[in-house]
Amino acid sequence: MGRSVSVVVCTRNRASYLKDCLVSLMSQSLEPKEIIIVDDSSDEPLLEMLGTAVAGSKCYASGTKIIYMRNKKHEGVARSRNLGIAAASGDVIAFIDDDGYAHKHWLRNLAVPYERNSVVGVGGPVVEVGRQIEKQRNSQRLSFISHEGDIVHNYRVSSIKEAGRLKTSAVRFLMGGNMSFRRNMLLEIKGVDSRFKGNAYREETDLCLRASRRGKIIFASNALAYHNTARIGGTRDVIKMTQFLYWYFRNTTIFFLKHFDFWNAMHKIHRHARKLAYSVLNGTLHTNRDYLLIDHKAKQVAAILNGIVSGILKAGNSMRRLSFANPETIMTLKVQLTDGVPQLIAERNILSSARLVLQLRTTK
Q: Which residue, 102, 142, 184, 196, could crosslink 24 as a Cys pair with Cβ 3.0–4.6 Å?
């Protein structure tokens, strides 16, 4: 398996969750080349809390380098992912959510399909922890985009046993909390489209569809990640239903207009908007985000329409570069044993940071 893997974790105000993620990555049977933490301008003392987490963990000292970068201001998950891509040096870049954590063989099982040169991306199922799973329709198909504009997948499961019933096969898209790609391919396609903002819906699906034009994307049913849904941080700044619907339809409209011909895209947008607008008016609209604050029905319908208009206006721009902001902080860290206790320490390696700065400048 001669592929080196960099793991990128984008985070915002979730230090208490991120510590479990970091410990799981430091305990992998296939050691990552580096773990890149992109802090999207958190309000919390992130490094201090991570140091405490590592010291209290059972993970062993490792040669894995940890790169910590902090955005000067809130940039969103798309630009944060791109910053991680620019900083990575592994052959493969894997992504996991900051409120998720990895099975000990996650990276090993992700790496296996890359032995075939035709494979450009690999992902796996996400086992939900403490969250109810909706049973997807047409469960014989792993993923598809319906005529009505629904983007459906069966990657989210409630147990390892349920994940074992899924088949390893080629697919068109993966989940953002459990996906990986060849680094060179990500740079060629200019990474994640930074137009997917707000609740960041469709950013990973768009990335996967563009990647699938370069080669095969494999869903590996044994590459398990877990997800402990956080109610705060990340994209949870979108807390009103009107905000959620606006960004949902803005991003979905951009997505459809990018990947389908105009009339097919508008048909999907129309069908999808009509279905959700009726659900709003009938009081039957529900999401798996029970923290959302419900606004007046008329405002929700207006948010759907405004999102569509905004998406149409934004859809015409093309991606010309890997879009990210230069971080205000770049720090290399490592875990070392001190009197038998693992500690997270900052390396005073000026050359390493200088290399990273040069790499970011030349990649952008």
A: 102
